[in-house]
C-alpha cells in the first residue's frame, strides 16, 4: 500500500501518528510511506521545486523498483490530488485508489 500525505505535512504526521499504518500492518499489509518533496524528512526538501508530474514520476519509479505488482494507493488532501494523477498515468501500477479531502478546484493545474 502506498500512502501519500497532504500539503505541509509528512507521512509520519498524516499516516503513522494517526495510527492508519498500524491498522494496515496489523492486518498483514505491507506499507510504503514516503515524504513528498519539500516535506517531512525528505533530504532534498530545499532543492528546487517539484511539479506534480515530477512527483508522479518519482512515485512510479519507487513502486516499480519494489517490483511487487500493483499497489493500493491512499491519498489525503494534496496526496489525493497526486494519487489521482498517479493512478491516471500509471493504471498498471494501481490496484485500488482511495482519496480523501481533495479541494473543489485544482490549484496545482498551473504547475508544469
Describe what this molecule looks like in 3D.
This protein has 112 residues and is α/β, with parallel strands linked by helices. The protein has a single domain, classed as Alpha/Beta hydrolase fold, catalytic domain (Rossmann fold), CATH 3.40.50. The chain contains 4 helices and 4 strands; from the N terminus they run βααβαβαβ. Strands 2-1-3-4 form a 4-stranded parallel beta sheet. Strand 3 (71-76), helix 4 and strand 4 (94-100) form a beta-alpha-beta unit. It is globular, with a radius of gyration of 13 Å.
Percent of residues in beta strands: 15-25%
CATH class: Alpha Beta
Question: How far is the N terminus from the C terminus?
Answer: 27 Å
The tally of structural domains comes to 1
Strand order in the largest sheet: 2-1-3-4
CATH topology: Rossmann fold
For the record, the CATH architecture stands as: 3-Layer(aba) Sandwich
Instruction: Give the % helix.
Output: 25-40%
- Count of helix runs: 4
Counted beta strands:
4
Order of SSEs, N→C? EHHEHEHE
Show unreliable segments.
none
Amino acid at each position: 500500500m502506498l500512502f501519500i500525505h497532504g500539503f505541509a505535512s509528512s507521512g509520519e504526521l498524516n499516516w503513522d501518528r494517526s495510527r492508519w499504518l498500524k491498522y494496515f500492518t496489523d492486518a498483514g499489509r505491507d506499507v510504503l510511506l514516503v515524504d513528498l518533496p519539500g516535506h517531512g524528512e525528505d533530504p532534498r526538501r530545499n532543492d528546487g521545486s517539484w511539479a506534480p508530474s515530477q512527483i508522479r514520476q518519482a512515485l512510479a519509479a519507487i513502486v516499480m523498483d519494489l517490483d511487487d505488482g500493483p499497489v493500493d494507493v491512499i491519498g489525503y488532501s494534496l496526496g489525493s490530488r497526486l494519487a489521482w494523477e498517479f493512478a491516471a498515468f500509471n493504471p498498471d501500477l494501481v490496484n485500488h485508489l482511495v482519496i480523501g479531502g481533495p479541494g473543489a478546484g485544482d490549484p496545482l493545474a498551473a504547475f508544469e
